Amino acid sequence: MAVTRAGQRAATRRALLAEGRRRFAADGYHAVVLADVARAAGVTKGAAYHHFASKAGLFRAVVAEVQEELGERVAAAAERHEDPWEQLLAGCRAFLAAGRDPVARRIVLVDAPAVLGWDEWRAMDEDGSARHLAQALDTLVASGVIAEQPVEPLARLLSGAMNEAALWLARGADASPQAPALTERALERLLGGLRAGGGGGSVAVDGG
């Protein structure tokens, strides 16, 4: 009986997450009503409040789920390559592609920073795809592909740049169909400057 109850609770949670995810992606956070989510999922409003306490609680759980999937997507893209540098590039491209994924775009990139606040959203990002970026940079510094330097500030700089680029793409990137390709090329040039002996050291600045 206990196993059955546990299974029922798990099934209820999964149903609420799935329906919440569908509605948050399609309609945006502010248009979603928790009672409607519960009804569509085939459970009571009380069950929804029991599992998530509020609409914000359900949204937070959905964001965590999508963030985890995004991190797995980044890791899977990197693992298709043996060369650590190609792994870094592939993982970064996979992250930028989130700006073109309608679920990740609306839930993680557009609504989550506004609903959860920047600090919480950033912490969730660090638990997901940003963690893979730091690991990739650690490997590249250790192998000498990137010049010896502290990894944490570098990872934060790159993560911030990619988050900003992904947000830009998610919001339409000025409706330019070339924006994704241009962003990838800019990213590759930026990363190329990090390579040891890659010419990314000093930049001449025109003071006129």
Largest sheet: none
Low-confidence stretches are 199-208
Secondary-structure-based class equals mainly alpha
The residue-averaged pLDDT reads 87
Give the SSE order as H and E letters. HHHHHHHHHH
Helix amount: over 70%
Topology:
Layout: H1 2-27, H2 34-41, H3 45-52, H4 55-79, H5 84-97, H6 102-116, H7 118-127, H8 129-142, H9 151-170, H10 179-192
Structural account:
- There is one protein chain.
- By secondary structure, this protein is mostly helical.
- It is 74% helix and 0% strand.
In short:
The chain contains ten helices and no strands.
List descriptors:
208 residues; mainly alpha; disordered C terminus
